[in-house]
Amino acid sequence: MARIALDAMGGDHAPQAPVAGALEALHELKGSHSIQLVGRRAAIEQQLDALKTSAEDRGHLEIVDAPDVVEMTDKPTDIRKKPNSSMMLGLRMQAEGKSDAFVSAGNTGAQMAGSMMALRLHAGLKRPAIATIFPTGKKSVVVMDSGANVDCSADELVQFARLGAVYAEDILGRSNPAVGLLSIGEEPEKGNTVTKEAHAMLAAARGTGINFLGNVEGRDLPAGTSHWGDLDVVVCDGFVGNVILKFYEAVAPLMIRLLVKEGVDEKTIKKALRSLDYSEHGGAPLLGVKGVSIICHGRSSPAAIKNAIKVAVRAVESRMNEHIGRRLEGAAAPAAAGGHGT
Amino acid sequence: MARIALDAMGGDHAPQAPVAGALEALHELKGSHSIQLVGRRAAIEQQLDALKTSAEDRGHLEIVDAPDVVEMTDKPTDIRKKPNSSMMLGLRMQAEGKSDAFVSAGNTGAQMAGSMMALRLHAGLKRPAIATIFPTGKKSVVVMDSGANVDCSADELVQFARLGAVYAEDILGRSNPAVGLLSIGEEPEKGNTVTKEAHAMLAAARGTGINFLGNVEGRDLPAGTSHWGDLDVVVCDGFVGNVILKFYEAVAPLMIRLLVKEGVDEKTIKKALRSLDYSEHGGAPLLGVKGVSIICHGRSSPAAIKNAIKVAVRAVESRMNEHIGRRLEGAAAPAAAGGHGT
Predict the structure, then answer these.
(1) Are strands B132-134 and B141-144 parallel, antiparallel or unpaired?
(2) CB B244 to CB A246 under 8 A?
């Protein structure tokens, strides 16, 4: 039984999409979870009425009035000036034990900053990372970091491997998740300076909770498999991760356009490529904070919000946050021996 | 009238694919160009016979006997030990004024090392870069670097912009090519340290032969256009470039598989996606060396070799190498003022 705080004001289609997504989630979720709609009460009530919300659904919904809104154009640190925004209030509820998870399609930078402020980081971490589920030709793969951190150290890439492995276990149900390091060749000596250093550290960390396969290449990501076997987690810095994710998002529409031009039926195409659709895979958790904070795409549809809420529930039920804390603690000693410089 | 040296022993399908590609090129090229087939004479003769080469074609072909072969598994520096390999001989012919360009589908690292040894670099450059033509939804885009350089400095990214612009002008016929810097947001302050520094330098270099648009994102690459307008050149370091290119190569086969599974006719799909096929766009020139060295994919088909030869001819005819030299010289003064640190 999880209590999920949802930013009703976050995203390009708020409050419509979040409120509709909350209702969809209630209908699909098993067990008596509750959703806390955080935002401007009047706007939320209006949406609930417009969607003819049943009394039963209302019993699982709580409205938490938040007069302020973090805008998509605000700077990340602007969230400090908006303590009564839906985003900051929703996160604070979790810090105060009044909620178990937070979900938002709002300003990603502000959500990161607010999550760090309200929830704080696990010991040993300097920054949180964003884990994105990447649809592939085989099982889906956790790609991290996918945009929160640029200029990563080898240390940080190793932390991403640990965080991603827990996520793959708890949310995707993978046992002993296989971790690959994104590089430009399979051999340990291929890559840039940080990647080569991370390869050595990850190889040394085998057996301390990281099932490290080796270097993987760009082609292995859509395939979901590599020279070393199938992948559960792919580690890269947030610059590379962000470029690839945005690239991937744009390739499918291009191909669809070319196929339709050639006379292929659009519905058939979309059905065929449905397994590659991000929204089917829910939001991207911000890993490293002491709590659950799920980041959704600004353009999220109700279905995407629904899936993000389901990811949040799974994170709470599987006690992902505790597992991350334990994994990082357990790793502290051997990792320090492995050459931590900071 | 260009003399193109072709590595007849380079690539997974050598000598068949290179020899067949040479013949295809002769049939398509206008003007009386000649192709110098460099490799083991007997193996080449056998291929020419098998392909029933006409006397007219033979008149445009020269066989240059090279007893040695650089293997795909050789280390780049191993080429030093093989001065009589098809690769090293082909490159040396150009240095000695006996040939105008070199094309190979062999070991890429060895081709880079050999090209630097035989042809040398233009003044002011520390390393050559690989320019890849990237098929998009609009015009094709030159992506550089696409794998020759990792851990690039901002300086180097600016050089890539200059090299890529000349390539887009001379080979793709673009006037005043539009250059984008690959990053994780459009704003100048988005990106990693090197990208932000490169943005400042490129902005300062506007008007010195670089039509710099601004930062572009992963999604702009398949689209061929950005917030700032259509793209001709996209600059990134070779780590990111290599990851994206390999990723792109693998996405299409995955989508084709999903579409075929859904009952879409494979021929129709391939016809629709033909414009995204790399082999249609020829090889990738190694830019920065004083000469023409075109790198082909190891798996190159005869059609891919043919297209690479056509790129080589265009590079020779347009005097691309001279233009690069002049552009780099012209830039030396203002670029130094812009903050060169090395």
Answers:
(1) antiparallel
(2) no
Strands, DSSP E only, in A140-245?
141-144, 178-182, 211-216, 225-226, 229-230, 233-235
pTM attached to this predicted model:
0.89
> What ipTM, to 2 d.p.?
0.88
Q: Tell me: pLDDT of B280 over 90.
A: no
pLDDT per position as a tens digit, A265-293: 999 998 888 888 766 667 899 999 999 99
Comparing B131 with A274, the larger pLDDT belongs to B131
Confidence at B340, pLDDT banded by 50, 70, 90? very low
Q: What local confidence, expressed as pLDDT, does residue A279 receive?
A: 61
Candidate from B151, B183, B217 with C-beta closest to A192: B151
Say if A80 is an interface residue toward chain B (CB within 8 Å): no
Q: How far apart are CA B247 and CA B252, in angstroms?
A: 9
Residues in chain A: 342
Pairing type for strands A141-144 and A293-295 reads: unpaired
Q: A264 — contact with chain B (CB < 8 Å)? A: yes
Give the pLDDT score at A204. 95
- When CB atoms are compared, the residue of B191, B223, B259 closest to A269 is B259
Query: Using a CB-CB distance cutoff of 8 angstroms, which residues of chain B are in contact with residue A249?
Result: 218-219
Beta strands in chain A (DSSP E): 3-7, 34-39, 61-65, 101-104, 129-130, 132-134, 141-144, 178-182, 211-216, 225-226, 229-230, 233-235, 284-287, 293-295
